[in-house]
Structures are given as C-alpha cells and as structure tokens.
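Hello forum,

I keep getting stuck at the same step: I have a sequence, I want structure tokens, and every attempt I make locally crashes halfway through. Rather than fight my setup again tonight, could one of you with a working pipeline run this one for me? It's a single chain of 363 residues.
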Amino acid sequence: MKWPKLKIWDVYIIKKFLGTYFLAIALIIGISIVFDLSEKIDNYMDNEAPARAVVIFYLNFIPYFANLLSSLFTFIAVIFFTSKMAYNSEIIAILSSGVSFRRILVPYFISAFFIATLSFVLMAYVIPHANERRLNFEYTYLKESPYKIERNLHMQIDTGVYLYMRNYRPNIQKGYKFSLEEFEGNELKSKLMADNIRWDSTKNKWTIRNYYIRKITPAKNDTIITGTSMDTTLSVKPSDFGQYTDIVKTMNMPELNRFIDKKRIQGAENLQAYLIEKHRRFSYPFSTFILTLIGVFLSSKKLKGGMGMQIGLGITLSFAYILFMRFATMFALKGGIEPFVAVWIPNIIFAFIALGLYRLAPR
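Reply #2:
Ran it on my machine without issues. Output:
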C-alpha cells in the first residue's frame, strides 16, 4: 500500500493537532506546579528541603504528569481544533474538493502515532527513572517510609528451595520466624527453622539466630543441628523483600520484565500488580489512536449545542475512559481477571464507541 503524499491541509492539521496538544500540556503543567508548590512550600521549609532538590523534583514531575494526562489532552486537543475547523467550514471545504473522510484521518493518525510513540518511550524508559528520583524526594521530605512490612512471606528462591518468614522489617533488614525447606522432587530433604534472620552488610551475608536444622535421610536416620548464630548465603538479598509499594514504577521495560520473571519463580502473591503495570505501558499509548478517532468523529460535524457541547462531550468521554481504566485495574487486582484482559478492555470498548460514532461523521 502506497502511503499518500502529504498535502498543505495535511500539514495544517498536524500543526494544529500537535500545537494544541503541547500548548494544553504546557499550560496545565505550569498551573499544576504553581499550585503544588504553593500547597507544599511549608512542608519543604519545615523539612529543610534544599532548593536544588525541589527544582530537580519538579523537573522529574513534568514527564510523569504530562504522560498521565496525555490521553485526556489528546482528546481535548482534537475536539478543540477540529470543531473550530468544522464551524469555520474548513472540513466541508476539504470534503468538497473530492477528498474522502477516511483520507482526512491520515494527518490525525500521523499526529497520534507521534504522541503514542512519545508516550511509550516516556513510560518505558524515561519516566521510571524520573519516578525513582521523584519518589525518593517525596519519601525524604513529604511522606512516611516507602517500605511496607512483608507478612507471611512465602517464596521459592531456588529449584526445590522454599523460604518462609512470618514478617520482614525492611528498615532494619530483619525477618522473624524464618524457615527454609529443601526438596528433591516431592521429598523433603532438610528444614531449617530460626527465630530471626538479619542481613549483615559488612559480610554481605545473612546471619541466622537460634536455629534448628533437620536433615532427613532415606533411612530415616535424621540429623539435627542446633545453634545460636550462623552466617549463611542465600540467593536472595534485602532488595527482594519489603520493597517500595511503587517499586515497579521505577523500572524501565527490561528491568520490569526481569523483575516479573524473578517474582514469578518466587511465587509472589502480588504478581498481578506487576503485570498490570507492564501491559499498561502498551495499552495506554495505544489509547491515543482510539481517543483521537472518537474526537474527530465527535467534532467534525456541527452540533446544535455548538463547540461547547462538543468539548463537553469530549471531556465526559475522556473521564469515562480514565474511570473505566481504574475499575478494570481494580477488577484485575481483586476480581481475578487476567491483567492483559483488564488493561485492554477499556480500549476495546471505546474502539466500538469509535466505530459507532463513525456513522455520524460527515461524508
């Protein structure tokens, strides 16, 4: 298929689309920073946050917030300038020149492709490291400890080796009521139990306190070893426990994929949340195309309510999409829906809405 040669009106639409989009994003980011700074400036002063750290925080805040509202402002940008073109009879003029409505969509797709690609690159590679710096600042000067206490922790740390801790406190890198079981096939070969286990950063090893080891033999001549203290090397480190509740938001795509593979082997209970984050980095940029189409179909024709009616409908649908995405995520976390399905359901539903609105578009 030969790609159509861009015409003057193609370039005009692309400039209008991207110009309106970036202007809207820039305005809302500027306003958000001013309001956020005025709200938190007392906290910064009370916690003696350095001015340089505050500036860096807001620089890392910009890509995160811009991408968060990307779909919403794509929608608003399309409706705003397209409805203006419709009321100035520019859409009718283009159609009257023999151009089909499908051909008019080409510059919109080019612009949407640019925004979607930018959004994916930001989500997959730029925002994670910006989030790490942003969250470190927030947890240093604004919030409580970012770590959560792990309770009833079960995981497979190696082939046939299973670890259990009643709870783990990341602030002191210490676990309580620790046990380690080693299986060969379905047969238990040894079991270690201890009151607690703590990471020794100087030795780069774990120290086990008040331990009891039972080694099981086929002849049932079990060996029991006890002691008060022992250093041991495990295939896990403190970074595998009690992590940031938002840890996946600080990982780029390769890091996230490796993290998910590791957690899957360990049998992590909250694997759904990690998979949702992974699939969201693909589905969210793709929503740019769907919302662009809905925006064009809604605003390319004059309505009785005027431009305000079209913008109002667009904003309502945008918030409906965001709300639907939130509900789908909650169903994946609590309702047992596959993360891939839950994350893509809003796009599928709104794709059908776009097809329905296509019938209303001018010919």
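The beta strands are 150-158, 161-169, 174-184, 187-200, 205-215, 223-232. If your local run keeps crashing, start a new thread with the error log.
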